[in-house]
User: Fold this.
Amino acid sequence: MSETSTDPRHPNPRGDSDGDGESDVVITIRGLKNSFGDQVIHDGLDLDVRRGEILGVVGGSGTGKSVLMRSIIGLQTPDEGEIEVLGEDMIGRDELEAKNIRRRWGILFQNGALFSTLTVAENVEVPIREYFPYLKPPLLDEIASYKIAMSGLPADAGPKYPSELSGGMRKRAGLARALALDPELLFLDEPTAGLDPIGAAAFDELIENLQKRLELTVFLITHDLDTLWAICDRVAVLSDRKVVAVGTIEQLLALDHPWIQEYFNGPRGRAASAGLQKDHRGA
Assistant:
């Protein structure tokens, strides 16, 4: 499929709202270019993320999935392009303006990215203290306890340090911190990487339940085919320095792009699809 195809039978590579209205789009990216020296990672990348969806982002190694996320959240300054988040232009904002926008999203980095010298509760309180420095410790502790419970951790996880937690618990602690400010947007970078199948499925279920309960928009980078099949409303495919297609997995499977076919129709892709169909029959 051509990246500029307007054939209505195919997913729009840009991920436009297809007439649903601009208000339904919470992230808009146009003409994004990122490079490191002579290595060009993105060139002319376009993408729209719709309000209330779980968008999976996939691509081969080196396609710049994490670089794309870092560009959206302001940790990477692109060479060219436009990025709009929640109606706000993210390029060239001063720090105070950018900080006010960042308050509206939460981020779970790979492996949780917790501060090792702080307890789980203290980690959750970090963004709260940054934006609400006047809050007293009793209220901070209450909010942290609530977010820890929301992430599926036991109450006794709060006073523990990251080194005392399993890998799955550290990810949940990182998720609790990402939810600390009641975000509208949630960015997840490989949230199930390193988890066993049972732990990964439980984390997927947690994300899906939180998305529905809190009406979140979720930008989810993953290699996990089970996650894509189980909880993602649409999937954006990065290849050839661009987003080459966006759509449901069923729509993507109809495309003749070689990477998409190899990824979703390979042995692991077929196994993930069969597993989901089995779960549905047993429900």
Observations:
- Confidence is low (pLDDT under 50) at residues 1-10, 17-21.
